[in-house]
Structure formats: C-alpha cells, structure tokens
Amino acid sequence: MRKKKRNRIIIIVSAVIIVLLAFFAFRFSSSKQTSTKQTTITIGSIGPDVQVWQHIAKTSQAKKLGLKIKVKAFTDGPSLLRATSDGSINVSAFASWAYLQAYNQSKNNAGTQVALGTTYLEPMGIYSAKYKKLSQLPKGATIALANNAANEARGLLLLADAGLIKLKKNFNVASGSVNDVAANPKQFKFKLIDDTTGPRVIKSVDAVLIGNTIALSGGLNVLKDSLYHEKINQSTKNNINVLATAKKNKNNAAYKKLVGLYHNKQIQKWIAKKYSGTKVEVNKPISYLTD
After folding, report:
1. By the number of CB atoms within 10 A of the CB, which of 19, 47, 98, 259 ranks highest?
2. What torsion do the CA atoms of 11, 12, 17, 23 make, to the nearest 10 degrees?
3. Which residues span the membrane (predicted)?
4. What is the structure's pLDDT at 128?
5. Do 193 and 153 belong together in one domain?
6. Residue 61's CATH number
C-alpha cells in the first residue's frame, strides 16, 4: 500500500517537473525569438561616413536595439536624397541641415525630407596646394566652390568670415550664390564644381573649399591641412549634419533609434579616434536647428 502511494507521488512529482520544464522551455524560446527579432534599415551615405555606419552596423549596441543595418555607398548627395525620398534608402547619413533645407526647397523635391536627429559638425575648410596662407592668395585667384546651393552658400560664408569677401545683408544661408557677393577686393574668380571632386581639383585652382567628409576621403584633415576653417559656434549650426528620411517615415520608431545609437559613448569614442576629432559630435534636438 505504501509502495503504491509512493509510486503515485513519484508520478505526480515527475509530471509537475515535466510541465514546469516545458513551460520554462517555452518561455525561453519565446524570449529568445523576441530578442533576436530585428528591424532591417538601409542607410545611404557618402565618403568616410560609409565606414562609420558599417562599423555601427557591426556593434553589439545595434544588435541590442534590434537593428540590422545595411549600408549603401553613394557618390553624390542629390542621388542619395532622391533614393531616400523614393524609399530605396530608408535613412540618409550625409546632409547638413542647410543642405537638407535647400533640397526641400527645390522645385521637384518640395518638403519630401525630414530630419530625424543631429549627428555632428564637420568644419568646412579652405585648401590650397599652391599657398600656405590666405594672405598669399593673389589678385584674380580662382577659387572653387560647390555647385549645390547649400554648400555654395556655406563656402561663401566661410570666405566672408575669413575676411576675403563681403556678402549682401540679405544673404540666404541655405541658397545664397556668388551673385550675392557685395565686395570682392581681390577680384577672385569663382569656379563651381561638384563638391565631391574637391580633393582632385586642388592642384588646378588657387584655392578650393571642401567639406570635411569629402576632405577626409581625399586624405585631408581640416584641422591640420586647411588654410582656414569654420569655427564651432552658433553661427555654424546650419552646417550640422543630420540623419534624414522621407516625410512619411518621420514617426518611424526604429529609424529614430539610429540617433541614440550614433551618440552611444563607445561608438563616439571609436569615431573620435578614427577621424582625429574632425567629426565634432552634436547631440541636440531638431528644435535647436529651427529656433
């Protein structure tokens, strides 16, 4: 009798253990499936920023956020932003705030892009292979500027800040052009170029203005190699780079995670070391740019 009772207890306990094991196995399996579920995001970028996002894509921080990041390299800004607008690219990591605004103000792209968050400021620099000082630039020197509205305006503002030219009082920081030069004491000649070719034309002109993303791809360091470069202050906030996406995706939670991911301390440490501090982190809300 006792033996039968003992056997029943053993059977009951065994059944309970089996049920508990099955329960916890299910919970573990469900938890694992949830934690490994990922959202795939395709990011488009240009120059050294491609390497930045390729690095970020491999980090444990990206995995913890459930993000599977694919990176596609582009050679020019307009193509990248068009790809972002049509959805073949989810997020662009390239444009400055002014560049994005100029794109949105253009006839065929009115209001198609929105910024998700800020990333960094890379100072634009004035470079020359012929002269070591701004004061050495001769009368009638040829100076190359970007042929897109935002960077043409940005370059002219830098030349004005350097004391080389003066601009009209109503100069538009997003779309101003060489037609807005009010004073040109040394009668510089301005040559508009594709801004991605800056490092390649440096020997064929007297000076060229190059954004740091493109400068880095040409082996130039704005802090060491430029004759003059932008200072980090309130007046350059239009030049802060942003992550952007198509307007219809402005509330996409997964895309917004990219902003926090970029500003992760470990990732920032890697970027600072990789690019010698030339990508100055700016972790500000979009309202900082619009105010």
Report:
1. 98
2. 120
3. 9-28
4. 98
5. yes
6. 3.40.190.10
